[in-house]
Amino acid sequence: MYASGPTTAMSKPHREAGTAFTQTQHPASRSVEKLKEMIKSGMNVACLNFSHGTHEYHVETIKNVRTVTEIFASDPILYRPVALALDTKGPEIRTGLIKDSSTVEVGLKMGATLKIMLDNAYMKKCDENILWLDYKNICKVTEVGSKIYVDDGLISLQVKQKGADFLVTEVENGGSLGSKKGVNLPGAAVDLPAVSEEDIQDPKFGVEQDVNMVFTSFIHKASDVHEVRKALGEKGKNIKVISKIENHSEASDGIMVAGGDLGIEIPAEKVFLAQKMMIGWCSRAGKSVINSDVANAVLNAANCIMLSGETAKGDYLEAGRKQHLIAHEAEAAIYHFDPTKATTVGANETSFKCCNGAIIVLTKSGRSAHQVARYCLRAPIIAVTQNPQTAGQAHLHRGIFPVLCQDPVQEAGAKDVDLWVNLAMNVDNAGSFFKKGDMWPLALIGWRPGSGFTNTVRVVSVW
After folding, report:
1. Which of the 8 DSSP states describes residue 267?
2. What's the CA gap between 94 and 151, in Å, rounded?
3. Between the CA of residue 331 and those of 44, 258, 290, 325, what are the distances in Å?
4. Cβ neighbours of residue 307 under 8 Å, at least 6 residues apart?
5. Nearest to residue 97, comparing CAs of 72, 65, 71, 130?
6. Going residue by residue through the chain (463 aa), what tens digit of pLDDT does each one get?
7. How far apart are CA 137 and CA 259, in angstroms?
8. What are phi and psi for residue 95, nearest 5 degrees?
9. 183 forms bridges with which residues in the sheet?
10. Beta-strand (E) ranges in 68-208?
11. Which parts of the sequence are annotated with region: Disordered (predicted)?
12. The pTM is what?
């Protein structure tokens, strides 16, 4: 049944979500049974994070995804061709192991001193006093007063003292610190290569496994994308390359807006504007765009939404379900499944291009005529109705000329729309609207009697 108006906060969405859902795989969520539930909850793209795991590990995940896809192949409702995305490691800066463990965490308190060491002897000996980083040039690209963000900005440090191979920092924003966390240096001229050796080998692996797309991290310029394409080679020429925008292109097939890292590299209050601008640029360039801010991503016309940490750990299944529900509601807010509105928009566009003499609208409630009048076109609108109230209210809108049909023979209306259209044309006795040889008028009609069913634009001739 057609909706009579726009979606409200409490109304049920009129259509299924059309936005795609990307979800990062993790040891806890990559089993066949768990993947079944993730696909049922709406997952379209399974993302393989190559910052972690070996090629052998990812082969198992790929096998499981394809197994589940085949299981659903005979189900017309649940079946969908789940895509595989390879998320490259990129030129990341990471911390070492906390007390030689991948699971132990230490607490960093605000105001405490934390010494950053580059000597590999501390790689597995990090604690609340010492933190090892794998970026050897950090002392060259930072200054006293520089900010260092750890674990997607959850922990903030400020440089207080510099040495040849160490930094003394003060904890500005503390919290629990685990092993192998990412590090950001906002404003620093980091000289890491945009495409590492791993980023060359991993896409080659992706070609062997026939993945659908490659997410490239920290891409700065078109030549970085060309390096990835070169690694994909001739066999991988059809694999899509999606560039993750994370700091300060036409070469990419699409863009991923990584809001978390973006919020570290530029002021947080500017992230929403940067996201809107990038999504707008991508839409104009015809590029696919992926975002992780679910509702606003849909409202901004993103093509795909990605869950990373939410499905890599924690309640991944519930996160996926919630992602689908939010997108469903967000799409309903902009797709008003309203044939009357769509038809009137089309009629206005046609009238403008054809320079026709008039628009005839057959209406019961007057809504269709009001919708057409919103656009203030040159062509007059002749609204034919059997409702005296509707005829009178038509005068509230500029450009509408109501025609009240009182003939009981025409009560069925939509069953013989020619009678209604002819009535409109016969009323024009003075020839104010129609003259022989004029451009043909348009007629807006419905598929059945009643209000809210206008769905057809028809061209009629002037005899």
Report:
1. -
2. 9
3. 17, 21, 15, 10
4. 21, 22, 23, 24, 292, 316, 319, 320, 323
5. 130
6. 334 445 555 566 655 566 677 888 888 788 999 999 888 888 888 999 888 889 999 999 999 999 998 898 887 677 778 889 998 887 788 999 999 988 899 999 999 999 999 999 999 999 999 999 999 999 999 999 999 999 878 899 999 999 999 999 999 999 999 998 989 888 887 888 767 777 788 989 999 999 999 988 767 677 888 888 888 999 998 898 888 765 545 567 777 766 666 666 666 656 666 777 777 777 777 677 776 565 566 656 666 777 665 444 545 566 667 667 766 666 665 555 566 676 767 777 777 766 677 788 888 888 888 878 877 677 788 888 888 888 877 877 878 888 877 765 444 444 566 777 777 777 655 556 666 655 555 655 554 455 544 555 666 655 5
7. 26
8. -85, 170
9. 93, 150
10. 83-87, 93-94, 106-108, 113-117, 130-132, 147-150, 155-162, 166-173, 175-177, 182-184
11. 1-29
12. 0.57
Q: What is the DSSP letter of 441?
A: P
Q: Are 183 and 154 in contact (CB under 8 A)?
A: no
As a whole number of angstroms, the distance between CA 448 and CA 276 comes to: 42
Bridge partners of residue 181, in order along the sequence: none
Cite the beta strand spans of 277-424 per DSSP E.
Answer: 288-291, 304-307, 359-362, 381-385, 400-404
CATH numbers and ranges of domains, the chain = 20-90+194-334 (3.20.20.60), 93-184 (2.40.33.10), 339-459 (3.40.1380.20)
Helix 197-208, helix 222-232: angle, nearest 10: 50
CB-CB contact of 78 with 107 (8 Å): no
Say if CB 434 and CB 428 are below 8 A apart. Answer: yes
Q: Quick one: CA dihedral 313, 318, 321, 326, positive or negative?
A: negative
Query: Distance (Å, rounded) from C-alpha 416 to C-alpha 204?
Result: 65
Residue with tokens 């800066």: 93
Contact 336, 417 (CB under 8 A): no
463: amino acid identity, one letter? W
Contacts of 225-231 spanning 24+ positions with Cβ under 8 A: 225/249, 225/251, 225/252, 226/251, 227/194, 227/195, 227/199, 227/200, 228/88, 228/195, 228/199, 228/203, 231/195, 231/199, 231/200, 231/201, 231/203, 231/204
Give the count of beta carbons closer than 10 Å to the beta carbon of residue 280: 13
